[in-house]
Amino acid sequence: MTRGEYLMVVAAEECAEIQENISKAIRFGVDNHHPDRPETTNGYQILKEFNQLKAVIDMLIIGRHIPGISDEEAKSIYRNKVAAVEHWEEYSRCIGKVDA
Question: Cys-Cys link to 98, which of 54, 69, 90, 92 (CB 3.0-4.6 A)?
Fold first, then answer.
C-alpha cells in the first residue's frame, strides 16, 4: 500500500465517522451527548470529525496524491452546492417531504 492509498483509507474512515455522528445527532439531538462524555455534544463531534477529514484531505493534497484546487474554484463549488441543496429542499417541501 502506498502512502496515498493509506491516507485515502484514513479519509474513508473519517467519512464513516462523520456519518455515524450525524446519525447520532438525528437520533439523540445535536446538543445531546454520549453518557460517558457529557462535555462533548453530538454537534461538536460532527465538526471534530469533519476537521479531521479536512486534515487528511490536506495531507493528500500536500503529498500530491490528489490535485488541489484554487480558492476561487473551491468557493464556486461551495456556492453551487448551497444553491443545489436549497433548490432540492424547496422541491421536497413542495411535495410534502420536508416540513416548512
Answer: 92
